[in-house]
Amino acid sequence: MKNESIKVVVLPPESGKAYSATEKRKIQEVVLTSAIAKRKSGEPYIKAQVTVERDAGGNPKKLVVMLLRAHTYTADLVEVTVGPDYSVKAVRSQLADA
To answer: 3-95: what CATH class?
Structure first.
């Protein structure tokens, strides 16, 4: 299984308001191009679950991505710092084998 074909699930915000299709696509693209593509573990993932953290003004500031591995029942947690337009500022791996 290639990581490009994994399912990216954007979890609903605390407010319960749904993301627009455009915003959801931007989030998914950031996850595929930064959080997954830059992982060096080489292990395939089956799914990515994403939570968006926002600043006081409601702009996105961070994506917390849980990458679920395909064969080992483990996960990697990655934090992607983003700008208001979902431009990637930094990618940081928080945990391995969580």
So the answer is: alpha beta
Could you write out the three-class secondary structure of the chain?
Answer: CCHHHCEEEECCCCCCCCCCHHHHHHHHHHHHHHHHCCCCCCCCEEEEEEEEEECCCCCEEEEEEEEEECCCCCEEEEEEEECCCCCEEEEEEEECCC
Residue extents of the structural domains in the chain = 3-95
Tell me the pTM: 0.85
> For the chain (length 98 residues), average pLDDT per consecutive 10?
76 87 95 80 86 94 94 90 96 67
